[in-house]
């Protein structure tokens, strides 16, 4: 058994060195109601959105057999989920208080399912949903995010102009080997400016962090990847940028955590490069023939996650109807026709009058 366990550990280590588990999924801050176990279990890249959905209290279509996330407190769900994706590096030297897990098969993912769940369940309240990729000029806002982040820079021109304003990070952040005259460096610094502006703008609307609707933030940063391509990963610029990013991310995580009164989960995904492009699922014209090949014995489909709900509704409704029939039948059987029934009582009075 000991040799077998050692062999499994060696295989896992070799797989991680080969790049299968090189990327990293880290928990920067989390409340006591959300419990992450420290075990280093690999998590599939396409199941990261399911982790966010589960600790937010939403259901998922397929069970997640990952031991890293415990059940936690079901009656106290976090008010916000913050996910920062850093491209161009598979690991960042984070403080020891965070928990990290290797990513298995790092494929592109999105939090659209979580955003849709929040929008459908809390459409009449005040949720804040922000999904932003500054370098690609991709932005998606739902609910109060349109008014809270109205002044947020989202285009490359706005990001560049924001850096040269009086209260930008250029006046307070040590650049070291980075230059404010290089476009690649400015792109990296503009992403850090977005993180600071998000905290600043949200701090002006602190009442939104205390309502009952959950908030969602998904940010994608690729400035470090561009620095690695331009200078090289062994350059001093890449090392300085990595350290600046770590410090900024930790400060951003602490500030977001404090804005929500310690009831927010801040996650980070560090990925060197995604394995495949993000594609939408489409229906194939060969789906019927493929399903016949995959299911040659014509077995029944597995039950979905709504089965337990429907089963309980039907079960307790049938039990209630059965108890009602038993009680009514018992009372009818033991009823005195001459005393309890109004029909016999009316008939007796008519006979006496005749």
Characterization of the model:
The longest helix is centred in the C-terminal third of the chain and has 27 residues, at 307-333. It contains 11 helices and 8 strands. With 354 residues, it is α/β, with parallel strands linked by helices. Helices cover 42% and strands 14% of the residues. Helix 6 packs antiparallel against helix 7 and helix 6 (183-203) runs parallel beside helix 8 (236-259). It has an 8-stranded mixed beta sheet, sandwiched between helices. Strand 5 and strand 6 (138-143) form a beta hairpin.
Helix/strand/pairing category: alpha/beta
Report the uncertain regions.
Answer: 1-20, 280-292
In spatial order, strands of the major sheet run 2-4-1-8-3-7-5-6
Terminal CA distance reads 99 Å
Written as H for each helix and E for each strand, in order along the chain, the element string is HEEHEEHEEHHHEHHEHHH
Q: Count of DSSP helices?
A: 11
Mean pLDDT, to the nearest integer, reads 82
């Amino acid at each position: 058994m000991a040799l077998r366990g050692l062999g499994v550990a060696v295989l896992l280590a070799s797989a991680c060195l080969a790049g299968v588990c090189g990327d990293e999924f880290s928990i920067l801050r989390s409340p006591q109601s959300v419990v992450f176990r420290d075990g280093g279990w690999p998590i599939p890249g396409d199941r990261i959105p399911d982790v966010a959905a589960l600790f937010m209290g939403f259901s998922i279509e397929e069970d997640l057999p990952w031991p890293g996330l415990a059940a936690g407190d079901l009656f106290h769900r976090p008010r916000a989920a913050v996910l920062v994706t850093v491209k161009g590096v598979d690991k960042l030297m984070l403080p020891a208080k965070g928990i990290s897990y290797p990513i298995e098969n790092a494929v592109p993912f999105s939090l659209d399912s979580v955003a849709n769940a929040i929008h459908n369940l809390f459409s009449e309240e005040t949720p804040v949903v922000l999904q932003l990729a500054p370098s690609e000029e991709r932005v998606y806002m739902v609910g109060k995010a349109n008014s809270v982040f109205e002044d947020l820079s989202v285009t490359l021109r706005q990001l560049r102009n924001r850096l040269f304003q009086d209260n930008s990070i250029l006046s307070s952040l040590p650049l070291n080997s980075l230059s404010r005259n290089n476009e690649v460096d400015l792109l990296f610094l503009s992403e850090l400016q977005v993180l600071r502006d998000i905290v600043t703008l949200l701090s002006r609307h602190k009442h939104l962090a205390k309502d009952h609707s959950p908030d969602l933030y998904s940010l994608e940063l690729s400035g470090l990847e561009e620095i690695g391509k331009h200078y090289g990963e062994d350059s001093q610029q890449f090392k300085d940028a990595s350290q600046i990013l770590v410090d900024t991310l930790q400060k951003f995580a602490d500030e977001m955590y404090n804005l929500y009164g310690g009831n927010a989960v801040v996650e980070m995904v560090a990925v060197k490069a995604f394995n495949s492009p993000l594609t939408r699922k489409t229906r194939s014209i060969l789906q019927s023939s493929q399903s016949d090949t995959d299911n040659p014995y014509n077995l029944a489909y597995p039950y979905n996650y709504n089965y337990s709900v429907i089963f309980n509704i039907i079960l307790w409704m049938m039990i209630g109807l059965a108890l009602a029939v038993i009680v009514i039948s018992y009372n009818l059987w033991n009823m005195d026709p001459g005393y309890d029934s109004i029909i016999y009582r009316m008939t007796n009075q008519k006979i006496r009058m005749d």
